[in-house]
Amino acid sequence: MRIIDLRSDTVTHPTVEMRKAIAEAEVGDDVFGEDPTVNKLEAMAAERLGKEAAVYVASGSMANLVAGLTHCQRGDEAIMGTEAHIFHNEVGSFSALGGINVRTVPNDSEGRLDPNAVEAAIRPDNIHQPRTALICLENTQNRCSGAVLDAEYTEAIGRIAHDNDAALHIDGARIFNAAVALEAPVSELVKDVDSVTFCLSKGLSCPIGSIIVGSEDYILEARRWRKMVGGSMRQVGVIAAAGLVALDNMVERLAEDHANARKLAHGLAEIPGISIDPESLPTNLVFFDVEREDRAELHAKLVERGVKGGSPDQKRWRYVTHYGITESDIDYTLETVREVFTNGG
User: pLDDT per residue over 148-174, tens digit each?
Assistant: First the structure.
């Protein structure tokens, strides 16, 4: 049976070139700083994002946690959006493991935080209140339809943070999608931030891994926190090798995912029972509302036909395009969804 897996871009498989690089990777002990493949990947990541240094970690959640721990002391506060991945999908790690208070500001439909609201949320110098140490943005903004934040907006939030002695962090799990959508260098999108994380294991198609990027001193301290949370690895060049291939070969092709997402969104808009605004979906995340009460039954029938994705118990569904999803797969998905929604499969 044909399988079209649109659940997430985390389901991507490494390319043939990645598998070859993994098999042939030169390795050493990364805790001792002796893995040449990891060292090369970290140097490449720092250079691409216009920062001084980088550190390789196991996952995006670990990357954000280590970034927060490095910026904040226990009892400090981090400001982030009400729709932030850190807030919703990382098990409350900032609070549970870091003792960091989280204060939220509403995201608008384009993933932005109102700069005035951010400034108003910063705590005054008062012994009764936590110190605002960190402001977090997300680019692309997952729960806001994969919205992108441009350099001018990030600069404005960075100015607010730095004027108030706070740091600015970007959860950039899909920051390269933002760069491709905006047709801007990724370094331009993060020039005003103190730290940024990005995933190798989403649209860039690596089997594992994320990167934290920042200043040399900041990354040195982040390595200590990585060790504390159990994230130090040994001969990790065998997976870091895939990251080198990704940064060289997999960034520009993200435009294909965006094109497939647009085709999918416009096709879904023509199917009765589906509510979607294709123009609000700038990257590879396709959100839509299923205006039917038999959502669970529809979902089950789509899975039976090989189309994976969506949430059977929710009105709002998400399909994600990625490496391995072709234009032909989009045609099949649209044909299948149309048949299931019209004739019950």
Answer: 999 999 999 999 999 999 999 999 999
Q: SS3 letters for the chain?
A: CCCEECCCHHHCCCCHHHHHHHHHCCCCCHHHCCCHHHHHHHHHHHHHCCCCEEEEECCHHHHHHHHHHHHCCCCCEEEEECCCHHHHHCCCHHHHHHCCEEEEECECCCCCECHHHHHHHCCCCCCCCCCEEEEEEECCEHHHCCECCCHHHHHHHHHHHHHCCCEEEEECCCHHHHHHHHCCCHHHHCCCCCEEEEECCCCCCCCCCEEEEECHHHHHHHHHHHHHCCCCCCCCHHHHHHHHHHHHHCCCCHHHHHHHHHHHHHHHCCCCCEECCHHHCCCCEEEEEECCCCHHHHHHHHHHCCEECCCCCCCEEEEECCCCCCHHHHHHHHHHHHHHHHHCC
- Predicted TM-score (pTM) of this structure: 0.96
Q: CA torsion, points 333, 338, 344, 345, in degrees to nearest 10?
A: -40
Using CA atoms, how far residue 167 sits from 67, 100, 134, 172, 188, in Å, is 11, 14, 5, 15, 18
**16 touches 10 (CB < 8 A):** no
Amino acid type, 203: G
The pLDDT tens digits of the residues spanning 92-132 come to 999 999 999 999 999 999 999 999 999 999 999 999 999 99
Size of the chain in residues: 345
Distances (CA, A) of 233 to 37, 99, 230: 13, 25, 8
Structure tokens at 240: 């870091």
CB 77 within 8 A of CB 131: yes
